[in-house]
Amino acid sequence: MALNIVGVQIAASFEVVVTLLAVGELLVFMGVVLPAFRWSNFLAGGWAGQDHFSMAAVGGIFAALPFAIWFFLAIEGVAMAAEEAKEPRRTIPMAYISGILTLTVLAFGVMLFAGGSGSWAELSSLNDPLPQAMKRAVGASSGWLHMLVWLGLFGLVASFHGIIMGYARQIFALGRAGYLPAVFARLHPRFKTPHVATLAGGVVGIAAIYSDAFVSIAGQSLTASVVTLSAFGALLMYIVSMAALFRLRRSEPDLLRPFRAPLYPFAPAFALGMASLALVTMAWNNRELAAIFAGLMAVLVAGSLLLRRRDAA
After folding, report:
1. Residue 38: exposed, middle, or buried by beta-carbon count in 10 A (0-12, 13-18, 19+)?
2. pLDDT at position 88, please?
3. Could you tell me if 134 and 52 are in contact, meaning their C-beta atoms sit under 8 angstroms apart?
4. Is the peptide bond prior to 265 cis by the omega test (within 30 degrees of 0)?
């Protein structure tokens, strides 16, 4: 948080360094386990772990959606840096496209090499599948394994640091627009960064970490529940974003658009349909959390609208 308060340039530079280290870690992992990779291991068990196609297998795939979405969660925070970026009309689309492509390649690479290095069924129930997959390939005493564990910290730092940058700008934007108290829209007098928004989000995150040991939601730990609730929020945001795109094309047809959605209207319609399907199936598999999410959204949106109406009056 301190780096984000001091200035976006130093924070972004630090983020680039730790992200490159995290990407390097995943590439090293894939290279080390490559000799142990076998297609027969990856394809063992047939369709989704069963010998034949079944609705149970499909249900399991949809039940795993919250964790799959976490591969790409928070990448939308790139847009939050538009006001601080040089030439945002050019750099923001480049950042989005390169980021999504990088995440896709790494996600599929890790999935394939980890799942094909041995029994993927054994890894599916572990909290540390990558070190365990590497252990099977090189042994528990290998220096590669220790390197992976230490470099894995850079992946966590890169993820958390990127989320800090995103949430701080989002809270700041909501405060500036009147949907949150105006105090969240304050900028640091020296560094010109949203320091109040940065600290406010950090307080919520720290409280969640320390509450995990004794708070559960819908029979799950707080951490597991937050993962699912975050995925609900991401899917709802994707749905609203795609719907807003179609609405804006009709209401503002002459608006300047430096970057146009590719394959419009087919690609955005496909994204809208898939996000809606994922939201419905997630709600079906997590009914209690879906109800909690709907209640939280109703309270928070109503509170934001009342606050904005009061400020306007």
Report:
1. exposed
2. 83
3. no
4. yes
